[in-house]
Amino acid sequence: MQTLYAGTRDLSPASFARLAKYITEELGIKMPDSKLPMVQSRLLRRVRELGLDSLEEYGEYFFASAHDQEREQFINAITTNKTDFFREPGHFAFLTGVALPLLARAAGRPAWRLKAWCAGCSSGEEPYTLAMVLNEYALHRPGFDFAVLGTDISTRVLEQARSGIYPESHIAPVPAGLRRKYLWRSRNSSETLVRIVPDLRRKVTFDHLNFMDQDYRIKDIFDIVFFRNVMIYFDRPTQQAVVRKICRNLAAGGYLFVGHSESLAGLDVPVKQVQAAILRKGL
Ligand SMILES: C[S@@+](CC[C@H](N)C(=O)[O-])C[C@H]1O[C@@H](n2cnc3c(N)ncnc32)[C@H](O)[C@@H]1O
After folding, report:
1. Sequence-distant (≥ 6) Cβ neighbours of residue 213 within 8 angstroms
2. How many contiguous H segments (helices) and E segments (strands) does the chain have?
3. 98 and 155 share a domain?
4. How far apart are the C-alpha atoms of 113 and 162, rounded to whole Å?
5. Residue 66: pLDDT band by 50, 70, 90 thresholds?
6. 145 is catalytic
7. For residue 223, what are the domain limits?
8. Does the residue 199 lie in any domain?
9. Which of 78, 112, 134 marks a domain boundary?
10. Where are the beta strands (DSSP E) in 130-249?
11. Ligand 1 atom having least distance to the Cα of 122
12. Shared domain check, 95 and 43
């Protein structure tokens, strides 16, 4: 009986505190005691994969062994990667109805190239949604072109994002007309999968980035940045520091989209709210 349940033994308060401190310092993610059950359930898989006996042993393994080796797996396990195609759809309506016409007018000529960054892109549904919307806009505007960059700290979600392959159940929010154009269907032995078509995949690149890094080493300046449902996990000083760093790569007049449950009110950042969860950098 004991061996059967050994893998589920709780972390001691000291081990949880040490792991929580590590998560906050390395990833910026707040880890109050209420997150203990979540951390435990997410790390159990690693306990099993490593053949360890308990979560407590995992904590010891993580810090005692060269934890740099385990760091990537740990981050992949601990991050919350919930996302969706066309999540918070009002943002995409604003983009085509308001932001793109204004950015096009500012560009001053039909031939211009928009750059967009999905900062904290998870498994790619958000950058591919953006690419579908921008491609639809491009169809009626000869000369307009675009590129989308997606970045995340989790190598697991980045791998999925690069493949552009999703279970069919994920595409419910994609309008039927766009599904026919931008998604290919295939079957593996157990389920129907869809894949983003190559022409759209070519418009989107993915890279690894930790928002806690001092220098993001991104050379591009973006007209649009989606930074949605990420800073909700950070405390206020971290939110301010990260948004300021992100804004270094936002063009003057460019738009920053944040999640609807996130607010920059009271933070010293170089963007002003133009609508709920939509901000713009001064010209
Ligand atoms: C909840 S998902 C949001 C995905 C997408 N933006 C959306 O709104 O659907 C948050 C993402 O932020 C990433 N993330 C968390 N902390 C990060 C950090 N310090 N640096 C970079 N990415 C981070 C996670 O790996 C996760 O994929």
Report:
1. none
2. 12, 10
3. yes
4. 22
5. low
6. no
7. 90-281
8. yes
9. 78
10. 145-152, 165-167, 183-187, 192-196, 204-208, 222-227
11. 27
12. no
Cα separations in angstroms, 224 against 254, 261, 264:
6, 19, 17
User: What's the CATH code of the domain at 223?
Assistant: 3.40.50.150
Token pair 């893998």 is at which residue?
7
Does the pTM of the predicted model rise above 0.70? Answer: yes
Regarding whether 215 and 122 lie in a shared domain, the answer is yes
Q: What kind and span of H or E run contains 255?
A: strand 250-258
Instruction: Specify the residue for token string 């979540």.
Output: 38
Q: Which of 268, 217, 260, 282 is nearest to 239 (CA)?
A: 268
CA angle (190 as vertex; 188, 191 as ends), nearest 5 = 70
Q: Which residue among 9, 42, 162, 244 is the active-site one?
A: 42
In this structure, the residues whose C-beta lies within 6 A of any atom of ligand 1 are: 27-29, 79-83, 87, 120-122, 126, 152-154, 157, 209-212, 228-230, 259
- Smallest CA-to-CA distance from 173 within 83, 56, 95 is with 83
User: What CA–CA distance (Å, rounded) separates 211 from 28?
Assistant: 8
192-196 β-sheet, strand order = 165-167, 192-196, 183-187
Report how far ligand 1's centroid is from the alpha carbon of 210 (Å): 10
Instruction: Tell whether 194 is covered by a domain.
Output: yes
For residue 128, which phi and psi values (nearest 5 degrees)? Answer: -70, -35
The CA distance from 272 to 55, in Å, is: 45
Strand partners, 275: 278
For residues 218 and 209, what is the distance between their CA atoms, to the nearest angstrom? 9
Which amino acid is it at 25?
E
Active-site residue 42, yes or no?
yes
pLDDT tens for residues 133-191?
999 999 999 999 999 999 999 999 999 999 999 999 999 999 999 999 999 998 777 88
Of 78, 110, 138, which residue constitutes the final position of a domain?
78
Give the residue carrying structure tokens 């059950």. Answer: 37
Q: How many domains does the chain have?
A: 2
